[in-house]
Amino acid sequence: MARNTLSRAMNDVGLAAWFGGTLANTVALNQAGHEAGHAKNTADVINAGWDRWTPLNAAAIGVHLAGSTGLLIGNMPRMRAQRGVATMAATKTSLMMAALGATAYSRMLGKKVSKIDDVPVDSAADPESSTSPDIAKAQRQLSMLQWAVPALTGAMLVVDAFAGEQQRASEVRRGFMERLGEKASTLRR
């Protein structure tokens, strides 16, 4: 089996930045806006932070996608030969698609909130009573999505850890033997 060091590094570093940056901004930046001192400044401070993070997040996602694609291609023979590898890859791909969708929708909502000057808010995802209904709705949606992206990317990290365990020699041998047994029972029918 060939090494996939570059693809694995790109997969891991990109995913770590996507997960960690989003989680840090959700936990710290969104709450730090309270320090702005005035409800109308809170949104400006938080939006400026997220706007600065967006290009780096996009780059991290791109690096992750390139790395995970390289790993997928490199592991094609294992997916055919080792039981469980294709299921793991499908699970990670499903999580990745959900995380990409949640990230894109969050950005769309964030841009909507960011375009409005002097939006009175309590925090990034918590409108004040005087916040316009349209912006308040976007903020309530962002309130849910701000945790969905780290949850989905965190789940991808767990699947990656499981994928690494599947590459242990004992796991490869067992998965190969299970796949061989499945093929033999199919031939006997």
From TrEMBL:
Transmembrane spans: 56-73
Keywords, A to Z, come to: Membrane, Transmembrane, Transmembrane helix
Name the source's superkingdom: Bacteria
Q: What is this protein called?
A: ABC-type Mn/Zn transport systems, ATPase component
What organism does the record attribute this protein to?
Phytoactinopolyspora alkaliphila
